[in-house]
């Protein structure tokens, strides 16, 4: 868990101009491989995965999402470890090997890939370094586009973050602020 201001500038950059997430979305947790959990006052829980370049917002289309405390309990506190793992090109998980090779992380740091951004096919353990989270995240998100997804839907891809909804497609549920 983090104080939202820790990633405030990166968050503002990512969501600048987004029709649904700009201005009310804040980072609430940071993973050791650069994953970020977000909270949107209008749309609830979101999970940004740098290795996939996706932002999963499971309630953005839902007209009756679970209450805020239930979303946090289900989607953040019970997030599966496999969901925050990254993989080498050979398909093997990297996190435990990074801890062994690079030691535990100091506060505010992550295991970041070099070069940035991480390639979709994965990154070998030798190409990770301990780096300051905000600097690495800024380098990643100024060089890639993020796809807004809801993995529970088919198709999962909804639109690009920062772009309008496609004409004739789904649009975010209209509702007031959540706590």
From TrEMBL:
<feature type="region of interest" description="Disordered">
    <location>
        <begin position="160"/>
        <end position="179"/>
    </location>
</feature>
<protein>
    <submittedName>
        <fullName>Uncharacterized protein</fullName>
    </submittedName>
</protein>
């Amino acid at each position: 868990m983090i104080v939202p201001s820790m990633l405030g500038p990166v968050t503002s950059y990512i969501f600048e101009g987004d029709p649904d997430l700009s201005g009310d979305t804040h980072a609430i947790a940071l993973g050791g491989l650069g994953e970020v959990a977000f909270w949107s006052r209008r749309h609830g829980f979101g999970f940004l995965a740098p290795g996939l370049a996706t932002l999963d917002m499971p309630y953005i289309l839902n007209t009756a999402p679970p209450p805020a405390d239930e979303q946090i309990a289900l989607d953040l506190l019970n997030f599966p470890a496999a969901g925050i793992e990254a993989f080498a090109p050979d398909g093997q998980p990297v996190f435990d090997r990074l801890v062994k090779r690079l030691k535990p992380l100091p506060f505010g740091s992550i295991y970041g890939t070099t070069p940035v951004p991480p390639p979709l096919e994965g990154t070998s353990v030798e190409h990770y370094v301990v780096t300051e989270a905000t600097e690495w995240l800024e380098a990643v998100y100024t060089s890639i586009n993020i796809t807004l997804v809801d993995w529970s839907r088919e198709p999962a891809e909804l639109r690009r973050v920062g772009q309008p909804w496609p004409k004739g497609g789904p649009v975010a549920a209209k509702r007031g602020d959540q706590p």
